[in-house]
Every structure is written in structure tokens, then in C-alpha cells.
Design goal:
- With 332 residues, the protein is of the alpha+beta class.
- The protein has a domain of 215 residues: L,D-transpeptidase catalytic domain-like, CATH 2.40.440.10.
- It is 24% helix and 22% strand.
- The chain is built from 5 helices and 13 strands.
- It has a 9-stranded mixed β-sheet. It has a two-stranded antiparallel ribbon with strand order 1-2. Strands 12-13 form a two-stranded antiparallel sheet.
- Strand 12 and strand 13 form a beta hairpin.
- The chain is elongated, with a radius of gyration of 30 Å.
């Protein structure tokens, strides 16, 4: 064998070794990749079974401040510990009812249609006519919109809460989510206590006073909570005409010091307004009631500043509610 043939044989052997090494390396990588994909698939199946979801929600206006990353574990009813309050038995029972058949929920959600007139600060509820169109007005409500309230569009109601913790450590009764961080709810309370109403905010009903949520009297917020199911459509528009039923009124309660820390429309049996009589001598008295609400005679000055992402500062709002309708994750 010549020297040249020997060199060729050596090169050939080297090539065989290199090719074999590459094939072995590819096999190893294929095995590792297959194993990784296998376990990833298992994890996805496990997450699906457990009901874990990860999603990114962006508000309709595209504001970066209102974008929120939400992680829900174990189903739709799990709450973020930073901005959720423990539900009462009434709310839990309501949630169980909402978990009924899809057919029932669809029927309930099609029972009413809600229109919010931003210019007039009026909410009007409609039901269907004989042609199946929502043209029959059944109820009108005085409200307060805010600077971040949608100017137009149709949305579907979703989550409901008998009490909702709002940023600024204040609370709203009978809250119903309209879209993103925009909710129906009562005038805010300083605590999760019906005797801590921010009465100076109640007197603003009928005017633009919130950051974006739709504030209502308790009786009206409760009516929506009780009668309008998840999926109910809510439309925003502006018109100088308040609507077919006109604009309801709301009494002013600032001067009624003995009872003003309660919403006068709250159906609670302990509401002191039920037995309240205003003395002709301007002495406010409450008769036959065991509930004496905490008096708060300090009215906070107007800040007249609006911050969507972190603070709800309403027109002539209180310090406690600088962003009272914004939750800690930028929820109005």
C-alpha cells in the first residue's frame, strides 16, 4: 500500500468518526427535545384540568396605565388578595346561582339592556318590545360618571360583588363590572360598613364626580345587581335629553348629621333613615333605632386632579377616595 493510499484511508476514517459523532449528537438532542416537549405537554394538560389561566387584558382605549396582567388559579372566582374583599354569604349564594346552565344565563342576560347617558348622568333600563327590540324603558336612575368613563360603545357585564374594595381603602356596595375597570356601584364607603357612607360624595349624584365608574344610589345599584345577569349589554352615549323617563333626583343629605352616614335608599332594616324625623327646630333626631352611625363632619377640599392609573380624584372628592374607584391593579 502506498503512502498516498494510507493518507486517504486515514482521512476516510476521520470522516466516518466525525459523521458518527454528529449523528450521535443529533440523536441526543432529539431525545432531550422530545423529553422536554413531552413534559411541557403534560404541564399544559395539568393546567387545563386545574383551570389555571394566564391572560393579558388591555382596556378599550389602549392606555398603558390600565393594562393589567392577571393570573387566576383554580377558576374564575379566585380573587387578588390586594384588591378583593371576602364575599358575604349573600354574594357566595349569588355566585352559585350565576353558575347555572348556559341557556338560563343567556336568557337572563337578554332580559334587559342598559343605556348610560354621560352628558345627563342618567342610566335607563330597557326591556324588549313585541318585535324583540330593546325599546321599552322600565327604569331610570340618577348616576355620576367620571373622566375615564367610556364615551361610546356597547359592553357586556361580567363579575358581581356585594362589596368591592376600591383603591384608597374605600368600598362600594353592589358592584357590577361593565368593562375593564369600569363598574356600577354605590357611592363609596370608608369601611365595609353601611354606616360609613361618604355623604359629601352622595350629594354629587347627578353630576360628573367619579374617575370612571358609574356611581348609583344603593337601591339602584342593588336593582342592577339583582336583576341584570352577567352578559347584560351596557351602552354608553351622550345626549342633552336625559332619556324617555327623564332624570330622577336624589336627596341631599349633608345637613342631616344624625343619619347622613347611611345611604337613605339602602333597604337594610337597620338603616336609621327609616325612623328619622327632622325636627322643625333644626334638631336632627333618630327615633326607635339602635343603630347610631358614626358622624363625620369634616369635608375635604377639592383636589380637581384626575389620575387614571393610580389615584381616583373626583370633582371635589375626599382624600380617602383619591382613586376610590380604582383598584390596586388599575381597576376603576
Amino acid at each position: 500500500m502506498t503512502q498516498e493510499q494510507k493518507k486517504k484511508n486515514i482521512k476516510k476514517k476521520k470522516m466516518i468518526i466525525i459523521v458518527g459523532f454528529i449523528i450521535l449528537l443529533l440523536l441526543i438532542l432529539a431525545i432531550i427535545g422530545g423529553t422536554v416537549f413531552y413534559f411541557m405537554g403534560k404541564n399544559k394538560e395539568l393546567d387545563k384540568k386545574e383551570g389555571n389561566t394566564l391572560y393579558y387584558s388591555e382596556n378599550e382605549k389602549g392606555d398603558d396605565e390600565n393594562n393589567v396582567l392577571v393570573v387566576e388559579l383554580g377558576g374564575d372566582n379566585q380573587n387578588d388578595n390586594t384588591n378583593e374583599v371576602n364575599s358575604t354569604n349573600e354574594e357566595n349564594q349569588s355566585d352559585k346561582k350565576d353558575e347555572g346552565s348556559k341557556t338560563t344565563n343567556k336568557t337572563n342576560s337578554e332580559q334587559y339592556y342598559i343605556k348610560i347617558n354621560n352628558q345627563a348622568n342618567v342610566v335607563t333600563i330597557y326591556k324588549k318590545d313585541s318585535n324583540g327590540k330593546f325599546t321599552v324603558p322600565v327604569k331610570a336612575m340618577i348616576c355620576s360618571i367620571g373622566t375615564a368613563t367610556p364615551e361610546s360603545g356597547v359592553y357586556k357585564m361580567s363579575d358581581k360583588y356585594t362589596w368591592r374594595l376600591l383603591q384608597g381603602n374605600v368600598y362600594g356596595q353592589y358592584a357590577c363590572r361593565i368593562t375593564g375597570h369600569i363598574l356600577f356601584h354605590s357611592v363609596p364607603y370608608e369601611k365595609q360598613d353601611k354606616s360609613t357612607l361618604e355623604w359629601w360624595e352622595y350629594d354629587k349624584l347627578g353630576t360628573k364626580a367619579s374617575l370612571g365608574c358609574i356611581r348609583l344610589k344603593v337601591e339602584d345599584a342593588k336593582w342592577i345587581y339583582d336583576n341584570c345577569a352577567k352578559g347584560t349589554q351596557v351602552e354608553f352615549y351622550s345626549d342633552s335629553n336625559p332619556g324617555p323617563l327623564g332624570k330622577p333626583s336624589a336627596q341631599k343629605i349633608s345637613e342631616d348629621e344624625a343619619v347622613r352616614n347611611w345611604d337613605p335608599t339602602d333597604p337594610d332594616k337597620n338603616n336609621p333613615w327609616k325612623n328619622y324625623k327632622k325636627d322643625s327646630k333644626d334638631n336632627n333626631t333618630v327615633k326607635e333605632t339602635s343603630t347610631k352611625p358614626t358622624q363625620n363632619t369634616t369635608t375635604l377640599k377639592d383636589t380637581n386632579t384626575n389620575v387614571v392609573s393610580k389615584n381616583e380624584i373626583t370633582t371635589t372628592t375626599s382624600k380617602n377616595e383619591r382613586a376610590s374607584e380604582l383598584e390596586s391593579n388599575n381597576e376603576i
